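Amino Acid Chain and Its Fold in Token Form
===========================================
What this section holds: a protein sequence and its matching fold, both as plain text.
Structure line: whole-number tokens from a learned vocabulary of local backbone shapes, matched to residues.
Purpose: to set a sequence beside its fold so the mapping can be learned.
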Amino acid sequence: MKVLIMYATAGHGHKKAAEYLCEELERRKREYGSDIEIVSTDLFKQTPAAFVKTYPVSYEFMVSKVPWFWGFSYWLTNMQWFARLVAPIRRFYNKINSRQLEQYLITEAPDVLLFTHFFPPEVSTYLKRKGRISSQIVTVVTDFFAHSTWINKGTDHFVVMTDESKQALARWGIPPETINVLGIPVGAKFQYNEDKRDVRARLGIEQERLTLLLTSGSFGIGPFEEVLSALEAFKDSIQALIVCGNNKHLFEALSKKQFPYPVKVNGFIDNMHEFMDAADVIIAKSGGITTCESLAKSVPMIITSPIPGQETGNARYLIEHDCAFELKRPKDIAEIIGSIVRSPEVLREKIENIQKVRKPQATKHIIDLVLSLKK
């Protein structure tokens, strides 16, 4: 059985989801000696150089510099009438940028195509309708709700996080039996918790302080300095772990700054699972992967600066299910942290609600679905 996993290095989540799925497939292959051939690749390796250069840069520019425009575009293109109107334009645009990708998919001829980005499913379903490939197509939606760009009729299986997302896809005419509510992939290290005291000792932080983890994804977006400055009143009871991602300027600025409580500043890290084990609460944007990792670890989020569109949808779901706090203005962090310090039950209630929505075994269940498609 040949499985081709394809992602995009636009943002961090699509790639991480693919890596987690690949890791689980590799584990199954080792453990059971399964006859599985695994190919994992970035779609940008099979697209024109101009597309590779402009797509990630334009995405990062819009979400960080003009988020209002990104949000409006997201909303407009998710309207059924507009999505249908621009579908031919989308097909033409994808056709121009996917000639190499089309040939690659035809040549590889996998049994299963497993996607964590919305671009290759559209190309693949087109090829399948034309009879040029016969692969089973599985699309894993990496946010809590599927935007219209994820929806391509001819996809054999959709994987979504929530029942609400399944209902939304069904309203687009997707057969409900092809929509699997299995969750968003998380890594094996996020599927269990280490002892908090052991992890804090390993990271060199204090044991008894309320521990805040601040992270804003690979772009390093977020009101870090304003939030940290607003917490001076709790200098005797809190400490902070900061992950700046790829934002070197932010890392350097925060590293030079003096805080009245313990703060550890980090750039891009590869042990986020340990940081989450050490934390009592996470202050972060509501990206699909980060959100599901925090849910798997049962660490409540304080949601700040979500990207309009996909991340506001994720945030809305968590707030509606009382699994997270919403930080509308940086200065409001004092009120939230104050409520937690005064009444630990506030945090415990969020953790109890997380148990109702978390899907820590999503990766395993998705690979179960993939392996069930063996011809």
In short: The chain has two domains: 2-185+360-371, 192-354. The mean pLDDT is 92. The domain at 192-354 is CATH 3.40.50.2000 (Rossmann fold). The first strand starts at residue 2 and ends at 7.
